[in-house]
Design a protein that fits this description.
Length: about 130
């Protein structure tokens, strides 16, 4: 069993468009990213709301995790932290496939859901040299 988790930190930016819809975007180390990715080992992804999103009143209420390809959604779990300003998603990466992660947030008593930042689980390649 892998006793070390690879850690990935994302900042979640949420703003309202002209139609008052919540628009989600993600950064990692200050660079724009899709918020998902490919996982080959046990991973803990921390998604923290940007200060501007917190200032608007957003907070996490959970995440909906479903299978898109294969059966890897069962590998995921999550924990809310930092007064619901962060969500930590752990992926055991035991099963190959593609999972859909939909972040659920609330702002001023209204619920919003993100588009899906997909996470792909691939088997870790073992080099027997």
């Amino acid at each position: 069993m892998n006793t070390t988790l690879e850690k990935v930190d994302f900042q979640v930016h949420i703003e309202f468009n002209d139609k008052k819809e919540a628009v989600f975007s993600y950064t990692e180390n200050g660079k724009a990213v899709g918020g998902g990715g490919t996982v080959r080992t046990e991973t803990a992804g921390t998604y923290t709301l940007a200060p501007t999103a917190v200032g608007l009143g957003f907070f996490f209420t959970g995440v909906t995790i479903t299978d898109k390809i294969g059966t890897c959604a069962q590998d995921f779990s999550y924990t809310l932290s930092d007064n619901r300003q962060a969500i930590i998603i752990t992926d055991t990466a035991k099963n190959s496939g593609t999972a859909c992660l939909v972040f659920n947030v609330e702002c001023n008593d209204k619920s919003y859901s993100s588009p899906d930042p997909q996470v792909i689980n691939e088997k870790k390649l073992i080099n027997n040299d």
